[in-house]
Amino acid sequence: MDKKVVELLNAQVNKEFFSAYLYLGISKFFTKQDLPGFASWYKVQAEEEQEHAMKIYDYLLDQDEDVSLDQIGAVNIDCKDALDAAKAADKHEHYITEEIVKIMDAAVEAKDYRTQLFLNWFITEQAEEERNSKDMIVKIEMLGNDKKNLYLLDKELGARK
Ligand code: FEO
User: Could you tell me the residue range of the domain that residue 135 belongs to?
Assistant: First the structure.
């Protein structure tokens, strides 16, 4: 495989694990806010991010490439409230979309059609991730960014498996 494509995919494994870590940080914030439904929703999201990382990990090994398991960055998010946390998640998803697009650009340049097909899943997934993170902001804004108002949404979010 093209060296740059492999490097970017490797870096993305790390970024997806960092995403899991970030969502765990957000989940922890909500646990401490006594909003267990929100906490559970973001914990499920953290698990999804690990799946994303493992998809790329498996792909690289399937192509007989190596995977570097680099250090995962620390999470130091300091959320003021639910809306702040939702906005942090939304900002991160837009960043991840940009990173996926960079890998796609490199794969196109390298005429690596197999990786382009592989990345199609991530392009679609990022559209869903951005929609979900935006929906969360809209819901919090509609209900009012106050713990009492968030109680009903907390029940709804807790249902996510
Ligand atoms: Fe793996 Fe939320 O993007």
Answer: 3-157
Q: Nearest CA to 12 among 110, 125, 88?
A: 125
User: What's the whole-model pTM score?
Assistant: 0.95
91's CB contacts (< 8 A; 6+ apart) are: none
For the record, the structure tokens of 86 come out as 């939702």
Cβ contact 41:60 at 8 Å: no
For ligand 1, the distance from its centroid to the CA atom of residue 48, given in whole angstroms, is 7
**Index of the ligand 1 atom closest to the CA of residue 15:** 1
For the CA of 126, the nearest atom of ligand 1? 3
What are the tens digits of pLDDT across the range 91-137? 999 999 999 999 999 999 999 999 999 999 999 999 999 999 999 99
Residues with CB under 6 A from ligand 1: 16, 19, 49, 52, 93, 96, 129
User: How many domains does the structure of the chain reveal?
Assistant: 1
pLDDT digits (tens, 9 = 90+) for 36-62: 999 999 999 999 999 999 999 999 999
What's 37's domain CATH number? 1.20.1260.10
Distance CA 144, CA 156 (A): 16
